[in-house]
Amino acid sequence: MNDLFDEEGFGTNIAAVCPSCGAAMGADAILCTKCGFNKTTGESVRGHLTPGVDISTGTLALQKAAEDMRRADKMQKDMTERAGMPWWMLGLILFILCSATGLAVMAVMSANRTTGQDNFNPMQTFLQLAGSACALVAFGALVKLIVEGFKEDKKVGFLCCTIVYLIYFVFQKPKSRIGAFLVMVILGGIAGALFAKSQQV
């Protein structure tokens, strides 16, 4: 009878009880030998359990699937946060914009020479086209950030339409948002400078 009481935790020699499974533990014991619960960390160690004896194989399979899902979710979050526009991508965009603008100016100059019009200012046209292209890319980056805000919440999306909150929104998760923000600021500034310069030419 005393053995039965001891098994159920009513014995006088039991100093502590496992908070997870209620099994008897020694006074200085940290790890429960029945369920693997660690009183110091609050986590359960499952490696010592024997499938089919201490724990069913179905439960082990479910625990492994849950752990795999947690790892996959963490990996996806890490990849999303690290995804940003590299510096060479911005340089490539600027190169393409400048090349396309130059070709457009040369095409207009060639057309004006054919028709005999002399009032064409190629430098002003180049600056205006380049400014328009940079402004378009900057606007696209702004729209990307606003759409990301709407994906998070409708109120956040509307607040992202204001510059002050947009800056706050970007620096909440800078790893995934700073690339679009830098594209918006840099190309927006370049567009403004090109438009201002075109008025002076």
Quick recap of the structure?
The chain is an all-alpha fold and 201 residues long. Helix content is 67%, strand content 2%.
Defining traits:
201 residues, single chain, two-stranded antiparallel ribbon, 7 helices, mainly alpha, rod-shaped
Order of helices and strands: HEEHHHHHH
How much of the residues is beta strand, in percent? under 5%
Q: Find the count of extended strands (DSSP E, 2+ residues).
A: 2
- The low-pLDDT segments are none
Strand order of the largest sheet: 1-2
Structural class computed from helices and strand pairing: mainly alpha
Rg for CA atoms:
33 Å
The helix content, as a percent range, equals: 55-70%
Distance between the termini: 104 Å
**Major sheet summary line:** 2 strands, antiparallel
How is the secondary structure organized here?
Layout: H1 2-7, E1 16-17, E2 24-25, H2 57-82, H3 87-115, H4 122-152, H5 154-159, H6 163-172, H7 174-200
Antiparallel strand pairs: 1-2
How would you characterize the overall build of this protein?
The protein has seven helices and two strands; from the N terminus they run αββαααααα. It is mostly helical and 201 residues long. Helix 3 packs antiparallel against helix 4 and helix 4 packs antiparallel against helix 7. The chain has a two-stranded antiparallel ribbon with strand order 1-2. A hairpin with a 6-residue loop joins strand 1 and strand 2. It starts with a helix and ends with a helix. It is rod-shaped and about 115 Å long.
